[in-house]
Amino acid sequence: MPALKEGVLSSQKIVFMSIILVVLGFVLLVIGGEFLVRSSVALSFKFDISKMVIGMTVVSFATSAPELLVSIQAALSGSPAIAINNVVGSNIANIGLVLGITALVGPIAVDRSFYKLNWPVMMVFSLFLYYFLYNDAKLSLVEGSTLFAGLILFLMVLIRGLKNNTVVDEVDETLAVVSGFKIFIWLVIGASALYYGSEWLVEGAKEIAQAIGVSEAVIGVSLIAIGTSVPELAASVIAAAKQEKAISLGNLIGSNIFNIGSVLGLTAIVKPIPVTEKQILSNDIFWMLGFALVLLPMVFVKQKFQISRAKGFLLVFAYGVFMFLVFAMK
């Protein structure tokens, strides 16, 4: 009996330490991501790159760096299910959680570029990902390169379609005068924080999965995906509550495209990602496709070109159902 009690206490201690590791990992990823964005933008100004191009490319790649490091770390450490479901879960959370909760705080306007370019491209990337994984139960070097090349093509189309006077809110012009030494320090801090943050997060998540008896795919699509979405969710809700400019649907869809093209594409180039858990192809990826697909009719029914509070509630409710089923089917 004392041995059993000691074993339970030991297990609880492992879970507690793992949770601390995960939390510290998330904190470092947020800090690292912020420093990487600032240093990348400042460096781009040094090379006299236009603000518009910086906003569309440098900022977009830098902000996806935390997810990229998590997926690469997971793939290299023998946890391909986390590498894949980090992206699948993040794409679901972007629509069901971030968009849904923000719309509950205040309705979100939808511009026409949504159905002319952004949504179709997101569906193409999502369907290609499903085909690549279903075809041979892995994301190979060639398939990862294809996704990344598709992302570059998408960015080129976006940049060509923008006017030179387009306002890019994400770019801080004060970074144009930052010294080279400061940029170097920011890069070192950002890279270090991202490396250790991703390592601690993946290690902690694997230990939690093992301790509570769920698969790594479940942890990837839930804990890790939600965690990487929290900063964006918090910023969006605060902006909506203050009646400032909240998230745009285009930005969220762009994030989903980047997750597939950049995060999974580059990870597969570094190390091909096998599908090791069947629920990824039998359940999780269909939820990702479903959340992406439902956006189109949602934009055109009742209160057109707006994600209203009622629509936001439906998205959050659907996300809640998804989370319940993920753990119920573990």
What topology emerges from the helices and strands here?
Blueprint: H1 2-46, H2 51-63, H3 65-76, H4 80-105, E1 108-109, H5 113-136, E2 138-139, H6 141-161, H7 180-212, H8 216-241, H9 249-270, E3 273-274, H10 279-300, E4 306-307, H11 309-328
Antiparallel strand pairs: 1-4, 2-3
Describe this structure in words.
This protein is mainly alpha-helical. Helix content is 80%, strand content 2%. The protein has 11 helices and 4 strands; from the N terminus they run ααααβαβααααβαβα. Helix 1 (2-46) runs antiparallel to helix 7, helix 3 (65-76) packs parallel to helix 9 (249-270) and helix 4 (80-105) packs antiparallel against helix 11 (309-328). It is globular.
Short characterization:
This is Calcium/sodium antiporter. This protein has eleven helices and four strands.
**Tell me, what's the shape?**
globular
Number of helices: 11
In N-to-C order, the SSE pattern is HHHHEHEHHHHEHEH
Gyration radius over CA:
20 Å
Work out the number of β strands.
Answer: 4
- Proportion in β-strands: under 5%
Unreliable residue runs: none
Overall pLDDT metric: 85
Main location: membrane
InterPro entries: K/Na/Ca-exchanger, NaCa_Exmemb, NCX_ion-bd_dom_sf
Membrane topology: Multi-pass membrane protein
Transmembrane segments: 14-37, 49-72, 92-110, 117-134, 146-162, 174-197, 217-241, 253-273, 285-301, 313-329
